[in-house]
Fold Beta-amylase.
Amino acid sequence: MEISVIGSSGLKLGKCDLVYRELGFCNLKKNCRVFNNRVCFGSNMRWQRAGIKFTLKALQSEPVLEEKHYGLGKRFKSVDGVKLFVGLPLDAVSYDCNSMNHARAIAAGLKALKLLGVEGVELPVWWGIVEKDAMGKYDWSGYLAIAEMVQKVGLKLHVTLCFHGSKKPYIPLPKWVSKIGESQSSIFFTDRSGQHYKECLSLAVDNLPVLDGKTPVQVYQSFCESFKSSFSLFMGSTITGISMGLGPDGELRYPSHHRLPGDTKTQGVGEFQCYDENMLNSLKQHAEAFGNPLWGLGGPHDAPAYDQLLHSNNFFKDGGSWESTYGDFFLSWYANQLLTHGDCVLSLAAETFGDTGVTVYGKIPLMHSWYGTRSHPSELTAGLYNTANRDGYEPLAKMFAKNSCMMIIPGMDLSDAGQSKETHSSPELLLAQIMAACKNHGVEVSGQNISESGTPGGFKQIKKNISGDKVLDMFTYHRMGAYFFSPEHFPSFTEFVRNLNQPEMHSDDLPSEEEDVTESATRSQESSLSMLAA
């Protein structure tokens, strides 16, 4: 692949520098040299092995990237048929003014991904940005601009509808929703100490008219219908998939661990989230119907708190309360509430987008800490009733199959070897269990990595998972940003793409002997060209 930077004959690339600087790329000036009108980055063999070469063409025009359709420029698809997407920045659209952040830099990044041959990009669309000020008042302008940009480049677009908030970057729920929450805190999840989780609504209010007379499900549906109408020109062509936000960080789970996405070092078992008014009302009704009203007074009294270990209390120990009749009563109710919520939201999406030609997705968590124990406490507090005695992912896969939805599973870059022995973590065995359940029910899977800064052996592990089972249809690499295009990362990503696809290289992509000799003779020359990585 050759990337040509079009500029003036005098190498005046100030505007190009500005694009890269705005995106936050690292300066490669010290490694950049010019010879025979070619811009080269030292003897960087990683770039050469990745099949990327940069040339400078002297023309009087705006600096752009010129695509040549050979080598890695082919649309990516691995030998196993897995499509590769790359996630756009979480704050691709500004929360403050609903406009594109770093528009020129994102355009350059899209062009680079197109040249690599990836299938498309994933775009997070935030409820708190689009419907920020008032119910039913939507502003899609920033996201429409990105969709148009993606379409012009020739990439596909996977949209994630985010009905949750984010701490980093700061993107809260819509202002009008947060204002309601100030006087009705029961719309939020609540833990045993009374602490409220305000980054998504409690699933217990799904069908209660708590949002100015409307239910959250009705509000979600109106949001989806507005999206469908506003993006009708892109649906089924540029936009090929839509993920529905199902809970914290978009995942179908309770906020049992108050952590940032990508945190792979959480060791505590987490905490049950069943103490808001509406969850307690549901538990009370369930206990009365079960014939034991005392069990409906609250969650387990002998369960640990967020960061406590399994053996710090009795509930999750071998032979503990989780194996009792009460334990099964509570855990079944807790998990069924989550399953009902997921079914409600995914069926809404399937009905709304069923005639558009796009595929609907939902994301589940990979709660791999403590998987090697009998009770699997991290999964239980998150609402996944999966233990040594019970398969909790069969019901999930069945629900996804019922709604003809694909399942997104994160953490495909994680290996057992990189985990803490103290927590008996096993992401590989958990992933295998989930994949088996999906295969049993004919549910196709989309994978994601969980660490944006890279994990040791991450690319190797991703390739292993992609090459393994035929239920995997797509993989989304997270995420475009300052680290992604850096010289520390981008050559490795490019090589990863090549290893998956391994197309035949065009002869023009290979360095000639004359160029190698010329490079050696001109190592002392430096250019003013800088590259920035997003």
Observations:
- Residues 92 and 101 are 5 Å apart (CA to CA).
- The longest strand covers residues 120-126.
- Residues 1-73, 503-511, 513-534 have pLDDT under 50 and may be disordered.
- The two ends are 20 Å apart (CA to CA).
